[in-house]
């Protein structure tokens, strides 16, 4: 690994380093890199996969055993790899439809095909300028910086630092293509409940992955002053507001809630947990909840288990109706939105012409110094950012 004192900063122009514009000059990228989380593809993969994910993270063994049962329930297969294979194909097709003939390569952080192998193969095939999309919309260590660090590690492992460039499209939490599927889903769900119940008995819960409070506080650029929840919480809240406004249902209440907490109980993570929130709503007399998987791009294990199984069961236990709206998945709005994000970088679209559904964005092409640092693990080199 590169010595800790030498930050790896590829793809950052001098303008970006000054902190002024958030956009980069156009680059003639020669391949797209779709970067996924990765998931097991059979029972024998489950434990090795979980070890990959949690290496050095202090996740208790009991938690690993518990999460393993979620995967075992589905034959040891996470749906996430199939979803990313399908997304890869959809992206290639959508690019071609716009006359862009670039291959879309796919690599994962935690399971085969591993990013290090994908990047090494890309280099063998002569690709030297990769534009990455991580399947993660918001700012935080887990959803942004960790991908950037793993890109740097993949380049380092292949001896490719300085020879192959990996840039990354901006965090797309407020790109209209990502937001629209949630608007459509919430509108449909509210229409259905509102046909039978008065507005005050219906509630919307926007759910996202909990992260340690310390990671949340460091999410996004420090200079933006987002407060304790950092950019992570601010972005989710802003998108939830946009979704609710678009439905026109200002008479229906909503909250931002969290799911899938791990780590030792002594470490504080973002709250409230969705199950506690559902229980509280029932106690207040609410009769129907709309669950919005706002933090997730597709129906992977966190959605299938923690929402469709656990949260639904909680709702049943406390006697209220619940429905879960779809994730963006392969929604054409989402796929075309991702292509728009790629085109922005290929063309160097000026910041004022970039769509953003909230006034927090459009987000940065190149992450600001210290953005999304991990409070526990300390500094690791990363690409697609400005040096600290
Ligand atoms: C913010 C965030 C996203 C959303 C952004 C994004 O989409 O990337 C996300 C996605 C995902 N997380 C996933 C799976 C897991 N995450 C874990 C653990 C953790 N996640 C964290 C955060 C996030 N995770 C954190 C702070 C930890 C603690 C360990 C650490 O500090 O790093 C563990 C360990 C066991 C456990 O404790 O749950 C597993 C198995 C899968 C694959 C699902 C499938 O297989 O279908 C996906 C898409
Ligand atoms: Fe996770």
UniProtKB/TrEMBL annotation:
Record-linked PANTHER family: FERROCHELATASE, FERROCHELATASE, MITOCHONDRIAL
EC id: 4.99.1.9
Cited function: Involved in coproporphyrin-dependent heme b biosynthesis. Catalyzes the insertion of ferrous iron into coproporphyrin III to form Fe-coproporphyrin III.
Reaction(s) this enzyme catalyzes, per UniProt: Fe-coproporphyrin III + 2 H(+) = coproporphyrin III + Fe(2+)
Name this protein carries in UniProt: Coproporphyrin III ferrochelatase
Binding annotation for Fe(2+): 209, 302
InterPro entries xref list: Ferrochelatase, Ferrochelatase_C, Ferrochelatase_N
Highest taxon listed in the record's lineage: Bacteria
UniProt keywords, alphabetically: Cytoplasm, Heme biosynthesis, Iron, Lyase, Metal-binding, Porphyrin biosynthesis
Family per record: Belongs to the ferrochelatase family.
Pathway the protein contributes to: Porphyrin-containing compound metabolism; protoheme biosynthesis
Localization per Swiss-Prot or TrEMBL: Cytoplasm
Annotated Fe-coproporphyrin III binding sites: 78, 147
Biological process annotations from GO: heme biosynthetic process
Gene Ontology cellular component list: cytoplasm
GO molecular function annotation: ferrochelatase activity; metal ion binding
Principal location listed in the UniProt entry: cytoplasm
A Pfam family per the record: Ferrochelatase
């Amino acid at each position: 690994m590169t010595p800790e004192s030498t930050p790896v900063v590829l793809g950052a122009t001098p303008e970006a380093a000054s902190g002024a514009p958030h956009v980069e000059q156009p680059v003639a990228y020669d391949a797209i890199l779709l970067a996924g989380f990765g998931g097991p593809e059979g029972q024998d993969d489950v434990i090795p996969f979980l070890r990959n994910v949690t290496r050095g993270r202090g996740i208790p063994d009991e938690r690993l055993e518990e999460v393993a049962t979620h995967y075992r329930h589905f034959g040891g297969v996470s749906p996430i790899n199939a979803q990313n294979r399908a997304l890869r194909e959809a992206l290639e097709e959508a690019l071609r439809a716009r006359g862009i003939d670039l291959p879309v390569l796919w690599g994962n952080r935690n399971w085969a095909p591993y990013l290090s192998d994908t990047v090494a193969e890309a280099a063998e095939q002569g690709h030297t300028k990769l534009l990455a999309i991580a399947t993660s919309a918001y700012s935080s260590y887990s959803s942004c910086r960790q991908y950037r660090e793993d890109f740097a590690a993949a380049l380092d492992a292949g001896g490719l630092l300085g020879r192959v460039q990996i840039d990354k499209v901006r965090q797309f939490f407020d790109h209209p293509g990502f937001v629209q599927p949630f608007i459509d889903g919430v509108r449909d769900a509210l229409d259905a409940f509102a046909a039978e119940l008065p507005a005050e008995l219906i509630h919307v819960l926007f759910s996202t992955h909990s992260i340690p409070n310390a990671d949340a506080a460091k999410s996004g650029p420090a200079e933006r002053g987002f407060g304790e929840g950092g950019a992570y919480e601010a972005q989710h809240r802003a998108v939830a507001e946009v979704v609710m406004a678009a439905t026109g249902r200002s008479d229906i209440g909503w909250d931002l809630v969290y799911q899938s907490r791990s780590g030792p109980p002594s470490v504080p993570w973002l709250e409230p947990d969705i199950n506690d929130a559902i229980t509280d709503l029932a106690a207040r007399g609410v009769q129907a909840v709309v669950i919005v998987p706002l933090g997730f791009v597709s129906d992977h294990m966190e959605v299938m288990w923690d929402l469709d199984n656990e949260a639904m069961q909680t709702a049943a236990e406390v006697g209220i109706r619940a429905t879960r709206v779809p994730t963006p998945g392969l929604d054409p709005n989402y796929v075309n939105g991702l292509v728009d994000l790629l085109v922005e970088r290929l063309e160097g679209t000026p910041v004022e012409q970039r769509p953003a559904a909230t006034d927090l964005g459009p987000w940065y092409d190149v992450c600001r110094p210290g953005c999304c640092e991990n409070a526990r693990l300390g500094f690791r080199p990363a690409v697609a950012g400005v040096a600290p």
